[in-house]
Input
Amino acid sequence: MNTTHPIFLRPAAWLAAALLGTLTACAMPGAGGPAPLVGSEWLLEDLGGSAALDRVQATLAFPEAGRVAGHGSCNRFFGSYTLMNDRISLGQMGSTRMACAGPVGEQENRYLAALGKAERVEVQGSTMLLHVQGMDKPLRLRRIKP
Output
């Protein structure tokens, strides 16, 4: 009988291998999957280097896995998203069609365009950084619902 075969390794070696695998999985980004976003809602504070307008709420909510909704600045929007580790992609979105003139309308257009080009998400405590294709600085949002 060959006792050097892996199946005959000592129990302590098997335990060490299992523990190492568990610790490695916990340290991997996104090991918890999309759960941290589901049920959360965020308020836009900075739109790629420009402060969000005062008294205008642009939000981003994740009401359930794969669904996104929010307030663009004057219209409500809704759509889908996919998340794999820290990579995020927002799908086709729909919105209400109220007229938004001036700075509010401009912010909404920039915000919705940025969401459509989102590539990566970082959550650091109560702050979300949403990295967007073509923007030097990420969107910065603050958590307003768990």
Observations:
- The chain has two helices and eight strands.
- Residues 41-145 form a domain with the Lipocalin fold (CATH 2.40.128.270).
